[in-house]
Amino acid sequence: MPYPGYTTEEVGRRGRELYETKLRAQVEPAHTGKFLVLDIVTGDYEIAEDDLTASDRLLARNPDAVLYGLRIGSPTTYRLGGHSLGARP
């Protein structure tokens, strides 16, 4: 378990819910492609070019933060490889 008292599923669910209901309209499209890291307990967040910087900034303010991260405007946080998973020739 990544955080005492929270399952991985709960962190994900609460993070997605907070992002969709409270933050998405504020951060898209001005920050599309950047990383947002959110404390699911307080709702505090950081935006940066990379997730480590955003996490470090947020943890500097609140070392007990329960973090959820995402890439703004993207259905996935990271991409593996350089090709689409669609049909191949």
Secondary-structure class: alpha+beta
Low-confidence stretches: 83-89
Major sheet attributes:
3 strands, antiparallel
Distance separating the two termini:
42 Å
Share of helical residues: 25-40%
Order of helices and strands: HEEHE
Let me know the average pLDDT.
Answer: 86
What gross morphology would you assign?
globular
Portion in beta strands? 15-25%
Counting H and I runs of at least 4 residues, what is the number of helices? Answer: 2
Strand order within the widest sheet? 2-1-3
In total, the number of strands is 3
Radius of gyration over all CA atoms, rounded: 14 Å
Textual characterization of the structure:
The protein is an alpha+beta fold and 89 residues long. The protein is 35% helix and 16% strand. It is built from two helices and three strands; from the N terminus they run αββαβ. Strands 2-1-3 form a three-stranded antiparallel β-sheet, sandwiched between helices. Strand 1 and strand 2 form a beta hairpin. The longest helix is centred in the first third of the chain and has 20 residues. The protein is globular and about 35 Å long. The chain starts with 7 loop residues before the first helix and ends in an 18-residue tail after the last strand. The relative contact order is 0.19. The C terminus is likely disordered.
